[in-house]
Amino acid sequence: MPNQRYRLVIVGSGTGGVSVAARMMKSGQFKQGEVAIIDPAKNHYYQPLWTIVGAGVYDKKVTKKKQNDVIPNGVEWIKHLVSEFKPDENLVMLDNGDLILYEYLVVAAGIQIDWNKIAGLEGNLGKNGICSNYSFDYVDKTWEFLKKTKAGDNLVFTQPPMPIKCAGAPQKIVYLADDFLRKNGLREHVKIDFNLAGPGIFGVPKYKAALEKVLEEKKLQPNYEHNLVEVRAAEKIAIFEHKGERIEKKYDLLHVVPPMSSPDFIKRSPIADEGGWVDVDKYSLQHKKFSNIFSLGDCSSLPTSKTGAAIRKQAPVLVKNLLSLMKGDSLSAKYDGYASCPLVTSYSTCILAEFGYDGKIMETFPFDQAKPRRSMWILKAYLLSPMYWYGMLKGRA
């Protein structure tokens, strides 16, 4: 027997979960207590700012709020982890064994950070020059170590195999480090070594060409198909795999971007596809097998970049289609694959990449967004954060 019953259950209290909950409550179709969010996380983070927190632009504290302050009024918060999905019975099992019965389910559980897949990293993050902008706990270490850079140092940056959230973030810190060193007269005396597991700097041709020009201007030569597999922290050696060979690199600063995957409890569930992601239609966001289940964001199978900007376009589509399903109407809203990546190229410039399915360019502004611009830096650094807190999470944007 179920322990609790709800009309709508949302798994995940991140960007996708809270955005959908806010829009659902604003729709007027749910009474207080009919919607529940399941997630034990005590805090909510605006992660896109971490890319510049790591370069000293902001204190990391501005990216955090208490979870209770962002969950919409009237939504119940279940502070547990999900351990199992039972979609044939419309049940979700919690880590304490409780069963939650739902009429409709939205899965917005985000992506799993697999630090453990890099040998020797555990216990050394934040020490011995090892840092990462992908962790609230250690993002300030990036700036701490960067400030200590001296002539003769070797700065090593990594990017793991896709998919990862905010795929542009690994290169943003490279450009910011370059700019910091130039401003301090150190660039000619410090080596920047950028290693990517993939074959290119960006997937969309227009922005790939623009970023290759940025790399050329900065005299940066990335090492493609180099994947970080091990760290020997005591010796300050990073080990990469490249075409079957293992390559050792000495470092003074090592910025690690961890491998990522679908959360384990989704991977092993009946709602996952072969890759472990929630198996949804790429246009309607409805599950391909279970019609009363929807998903969005990083844990979904949607073939687009895993960014907050993508969720901003996914949430209204999901909500409209779910409300249509509840009324017995056809699902008419379609998600076009829109994603956005503000690619910071210095402390004052940014390329705003906007694209949809199949790399279709979907730019907002009446100018070439592949050119680094100060206006796009202002958008990234000062305007998107309040839009997130007071727009997206409130169901207004």
CATH superfamily of the largest domain: FAD/NAD(P)-binding domain
- Largest β sheet strand count, sense and barrel closure: 7 strands, mixed
Number of domains: 2
Distance between the termini: 39 Å
* Strand elements, count: 21
* Distinct helical segment count: 8
Topology pattern, helix = H, strand = E: EHEEHEEEEEEEHEHEHEEEEEEHEHEEH
Q: How much beta, percentage-wise?
A: 15-25%
Structural class: alpha/beta
Mean pLDDT across the residues is: 97
Low-confidence stretches: none
CATH topology of the largest domain, by name, is FAD/NAD(P)-binding domain
The CATH class designation of the largest domain is: Alpha Beta
Helix content: 10-25%
- What oligomeric state do the depicted chains represent? single chain
Shape: globular
- Can you tell me the CATH architecture of the largest domain? 3-Layer(bba) Sandwich
Radius of gyration, whole Å: 21 Å
